[in-house]
């Protein structure tokens, strides 16, 4: 039985990448050693990390005045690292509360002693839409505005970015990096864990405008942007395997046409599912149409028992990891880059049968 993995992250990776890892594992490029055994202080790894950086630059058209850095610590690590590195003038951050992960970023900054002003929130409507674009932000008040470009749990995404009136814009792109096109230069910093669209868990990308990187005292070295920029992301041991595997996925992305091709495919995949849900009398996607995500689609019947029966039925047909997040309930299909169109076709076919036979 063909298995399709709709997990929200870690998530499905391209078959070609898995096969390449498998074939290269015993001896990488004729060294007689696996990627897991080589030094990060080797010419071989320098080539791997530099190539991954360059491929990221090519794929996202990252301008030269941005650094591309690799961290550990996940998106959650960056919830702390971003304020520690950037909120140095006002110690005050603006936030658009679009869901669980935006709120978490705010809570972490607050916990570290920064003032966080939530400019707008859609919590009252269970984050079924993006918060209304705010009126003009005051100048020279906030160190930055934080947004989450794609809300993994609630299934909303920014297709247009909010105006910031000169305030730096920070994007948590963990769940839609390279799944749809954004202009890097519209952001001052983008961060993303790679474990959804780009690789195995363990690498967090930070793409940051060089002019924002400053010397900051009394922060952990492993979160110090200036130090990571100076040391090519290797002031200490980086996640060697994970950077290698991410590099392979970037090559795969380049080969199949880059972000433009991915976005077209992701639109096709998500439309197939949304079209089914919109005509279904059983399942419902609660998200405002204009704000719907291309990568995460929550849906439910309104009855937890029927939701579970649907999950069980799908699982029996090799359609896996469709349980919704506990805060939303129901089901959720994550349609990241490596999910083929055929996977979504199989999902929609089975949902159709489930509804028909109920
Ligand atoms: N931001 C978003 C949008 C996420 O989806 C997640 C994880 N699902 C995180 C941040 C947290 O990432 P991590 O688990 O890598 O800390």
Automatic annotation (TrEMBL):
Keywords: Amino-acid biosynthesis, Aminotransferase, Cytoplasm, Pyridoxal phosphate, Serine biosynthesis, Transferase. InterPro entries: Aminotrans_V_dom, Pser_aminoTfrase, PyrdxlP-dep_Trfase, PyrdxlP-dep_Trfase_major, PyrdxlP-dep_Trfase_small. The modification N6-(pyridoxal phosphate)lysine is found at residue 196. One of its GO terms (molecular function) is O-phospho-L-serine:2-oxoglutarate aminotransferase activity. Pathway: Amino-acid biosynthesis; L-serine biosynthesis; L-serine from 3-phospho-D-glycerate: step 2/3. Residues 3-347 form the Aminotransferase class V domain. It catalyses: 4-(phosphooxy)-L-threonine + 2-oxoglutarate = (R)-3-hydroxy-2-oxo-4-phosphooxybutanoate + L-glutamate; O-phospho-L-serine + 2-oxoglutarate = 3-phosphooxypyruvate + L-glutamate. One of its GO terms (cellular component) is cytoplasm. Its cofactor is pyridoxal 5'-phosphate. It is found in: Cytoplasm. Pyridoxal 5'-phosphate binds at residues 75-76, 101, 152, 172, 195, 236-237. It is an enzyme of class 2 (transferase). The keyword Glycoprotein does not apply. Its main location: cytoplasm. L-glutamate binds at residue 41. Binds 1 pyridoxal phosphate per subunit. One of its GO terms (biological process) is L-serine biosynthetic process. Homodimer. Catalyzes the reversible conversion of 3-phosphohydroxypyruvate to phosphoserine and of 3-hydroxy-2-oxo-4-phosphonooxybutanoate to phosphohydroxythreonine. PANTHER family: PHOSPHOSERINE AMINOTRANSFERASE. This is Phosphoserine aminotransferase. It comes from Secundilactobacillus silagei JCM 19001.
């Amino acid at each position: 039985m063909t298995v399709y993995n709709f997990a929200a992250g870690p998530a499905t990776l391209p078959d070609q990448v898995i096969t390449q890892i498998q074939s290269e594992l015993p001896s990488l490029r004729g060294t007689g050693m696996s990627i897991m055994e080589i030094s990060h202080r080797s010419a071989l790894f320098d080539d791997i990390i530099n190539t991954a950086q360059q491929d990221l630059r090519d794929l996202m058209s990252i301008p030269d005045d941005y650094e591309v850095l690799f961290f550990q610590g996940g998106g959650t690590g960056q919830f702390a690292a971003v304020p520690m590195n950037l909120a140095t003038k006002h110690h005050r951050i603006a936030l658009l509360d679009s869901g669980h992960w935006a709120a978490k970023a705010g809570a972490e900054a607050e916990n570290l002693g920064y003032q966080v002003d939530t400019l707008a929130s859609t919590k009252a409507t269970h984050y079924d839409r993006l918060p209304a674009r705010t009126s003009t932000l005051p100048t020279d008040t906030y160190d930055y505005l934080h947004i989450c470009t794609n809300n993994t749990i609630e299934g909303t995404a920014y297709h247009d970015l909010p105006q910031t009136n000169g305030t730096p814009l920070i994007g948590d792109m963990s769940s839609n990096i390279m799944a749809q096109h954004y202009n890097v230069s519209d952001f001052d910093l983008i961060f993303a864990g790679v474990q959804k669209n780009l690789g195995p868990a363990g690498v967090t990308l930070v793409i940051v405008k060089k002019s924002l990187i400053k010397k900051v005292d009394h922060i952990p070295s492993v979160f110090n942007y200036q130090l990571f920029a100076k040391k090519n992301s290797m002031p200490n041991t980086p996640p060697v395997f994970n950077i290698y595997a991410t590099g392979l996925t970037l090559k795969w992305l380049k080969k199949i046409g880059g972000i433009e091709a991915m976005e077209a495919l992701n639109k096709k995949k998500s439309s197939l599912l949304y079209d089914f849900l919109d005509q279904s009398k059983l399942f419902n996607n609660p998200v405002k149409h204009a704000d719907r995500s291309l990568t995460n689609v929550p849906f439910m019947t309104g009855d937890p028992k029927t939701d579970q029966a649907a999950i069980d039925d799908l699982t029996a047909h090799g359609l896996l990891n469709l349980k919704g997040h506990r805060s939303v309930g129901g089901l959720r299909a994550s349609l990241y880059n490596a999910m083929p169109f055929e996977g979504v076709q199989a999902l929609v076919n089975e949902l159709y049968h489930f509804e028909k036979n109920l």
